[in-house]
Amino acid sequence: MSETRTTPVRFPRGRYGRRREGRRGMSRPLVVIAAVVAVLGGLAISVKLYQQYGDTDYAGQIISYETHDASVDITFSVTKPDGESALCQVRARSRDGAEVGRAEVSVPSDGETVTMTYTLSTSGDRPVTGEVQRCYPAKR
User: Where are the domains of the chain?
Assistant: First the structure.
């Protein structure tokens, strides 16, 4: 059998120490303002990073690669604005995925799409792949 109370429990005054009131948190308008500031800050950072790293007019695409004992010949094409020069980062990796060579290749401003072959010297293990990591404007 259970007992249901209709009146709150009252403790004798002064017997159990001072009763603490619940802590008052931040007011609702302050929480809303803090949330809006956080969202706007995140949005501003997102826009800045997108402008810096996102959706560029410069794109490199690997066409082929041929590996040798101490080098890799990488043939790739670069799409860029006509008349602009570009820089592309190329690299070679070994069988275990370790980077064994990296270079920054200057791409001339001839035309909108430029195809070129670059011989990348490697160190350490024999390379098994050549890649174009990224391309970007030569003038930064």
Answer: 59-137
